[in-house]
Amino acid sequence: MDRAHADALAERLARFASIGLLDVEDPRLAADHFHALTTLRVLNEPLRRRADLEHVRHVMADGARVFMRAYGTRTPA
C-alpha cells in the first residue's frame, strides 16, 4: 500500500476510534494490519484464485472480520 493510501486509511481508523467504534492505539499499525488481512492475503493467492471474484470477496470479508475482532470495541453481553 502506498503512503498516501496508508495515511488515508490510518486517518479513517483514527476517526472511528475517536467516536468509539474501534479500539486503536496506533492507527498506522492498524492500517497495516487491515491491509495485510485483506489485500495482501488476496495478492498472495495463486493467480487463478485471484481471478475468482467470489473467492476474493470471501478472503476480504474474512480479513475484515478478523480485523474487527482485534480492533472492534467490546460491548457488554
Tell me the helix content: over 70%
Terminal Cα span: 36 Å
Task: Describe the largest sheet.
Answer: none
Give the CA-based shape.
globular
Uncertain regions spanning at least 5 consecutive residues? none
Mean model confidence by pLDDT: 93
Reconstruct the topology from this structure:
Blueprint: H1 3-18, H2 27-43, H3 47-50, H4 53-71
Helix pairs in contact: 1-2, 2-4
Characteristic terms for this protein:
77 residues, mainly alpha
Please provide a written account of the structure:
There is one protein chain. With 77 residues, the protein is mostly helical. The protein has one domain (3-71). It has four helices and no strands. It has helices at 3-18, 27-43, 47-50, 53-71.
What is this structure, in a nutshell?
This protein has 77 residues and is mainly α.
